[in-house]
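In the laboratory, one determines a bound structure by crystallizing the protein with its ligand and collecting diffraction data. In a computational setting the workflow is compressed into a single prediction: the sequence and the ligand go in, and a structural description comes out. We illustrate the idea with N-(3-carboxypropanoyl)-L-norvaline.
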Amino acid sequence: MQHFISPADVTDVHALIQQGLAAKANPFADNHLGKNKTIGLLFFNSSLRTRLSTQKAAQNLGMNVMVMNVGQDSWGLEMEEAIEGHPVIMNGDKAEHVKEAAAVMGRYCDIIGIRAFAELKDRDKDYRELVMAQFQRYAGRPIINLESATRHPLQSLADCITITEANQVAKSGATPAKVVLTWLPHFKALPQAVANSFCEWMNPLANAGEIEFVVTHPPGYELAPQYVGNARVEYDQNKAFEGADFVYGKNWSSYAHYGQVLTQDPSWMVTMDKMRLTNDGKFMHCLPVRRNVKVADEVLDSPQSLVIEQAANREWSAQAVLREILVTRFS
Ligand code: SN0
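The predicted complex, in structure-token form:
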């Protein structure tokens, strides 16, 4: 694996899931692989799980870790190039161009991880994935996506690990598990990244007949076609929940009316009544989650909730990815 930006960078998703489970069973088996290698983790936005789990995973592999909050600790970075022949004149609030910053960080780090959320103002700009592209272009190092404008692949890989694990326990894969991605209400506009990625990782499993995959949301919250792919979209949340083995909750803002909150309809919150429609289904969420806005306490605090295990598996998804990059690029 050269970079980890999207599932297109992964040759064998199942093998990567198994690597994650192997790391979980034996965290320090490869602690020689990262010796004398340094990872730099750059955060343009807040983080709890991504920051700690990636740091921990790198340390399990014997790597050195440097973490920086870009813009707060460092200079603000200009990402744009000349537009239609007009150079970017840097007389605003950004003191440094990514061209220098990424190149310099590439000299200190063997691998670079980057978190840069969607700004939710200009759809084309967000969906161009400029920050990831610029670091890939100028750092000259493997780049790991720690949640970009349109994707959160380390989360999705952890979700695949969690579903694989829970499925093994639940029913040894007799019938394909039904996985439902449901939109949840929220008063703030959030990115589509987690939902996009979840679809992007679930669709191939559904196409291979390994799971059944359904997406449910109110009208106006359709995800970008390149991400929702051929997933079944069901506008009736109750219908979608029927017989579900996994309910994956997430709020996102509208893609069509970009970045807007079109409704906060509280009837979309996941409650125990809703979970009773499922096949004793498990509830999943990437966290952070707003209790009793998106999901009721009774669900989060029930044995049906997988959210803590899911977050724990972030360490193993990061470790599987770092291991794969270390093996491909440095051994
Ligand atoms: C981020 C998102 O992409 O939705 C990160 C999720 C891993 N979530 C938030 O920004 C939540 C903020 C809030 O106020 O609830």
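The two ends are 12 Å apart (CA to CA). Keep in mind that any predicted model is a hypothesis to be tested, not a measurement.
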